[in-house]
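BUG: 3D viewer hangs when loading the predicted structure for this chain

Environment: internal workstation, default settings.
Expected: structure renders.
Actual: progress bar stalls at 90%.

Input used:
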Amino acid sequence: METSRVPSEDRQAIGQLLVRLLHEFRVELAAPRADLGYGDIREAHMQIFGNIATGDIRLTDLAARAQLSLAATSELVNELVSLGYLDRRPDPTDGRAKLIVLTERGQQLMRDAGQRVAHIEQQWAGIVGAQRFEEACAIMQELLDALDPENARR
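Structure tokens produced before the viewer hung:
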């Protein structure tokens, strides 16, 4: 049986690095949300927005992408529907199913979040250098494409 490699003393284990960077990213992303009119969004909602893409997704697919139970995903979607960010519409390919779609308010939130993400990337590139930041992103994308080819961005 293989054991995990002990990282060198100058860095943490990959899992710790990824979890901490995700936390820092979420903190930075959420920082101005109240100022932008999204004070009703909770951190748990970010798991939905981070996986909905452009909308038009079934609840079961959204739950799988978000790595949440169907019940938890349904509860979060219900909250976001009541807040006016999401809506449910009949799936034209399956009369029994519903699609989760972004409302105009949800689309605006996604546009604003996209601008915030660009700002965060610029900020982080300023810390390590633009070239090193782009290389790190390319390496992470390469890993994801190899580990999850079904969702590869090629």
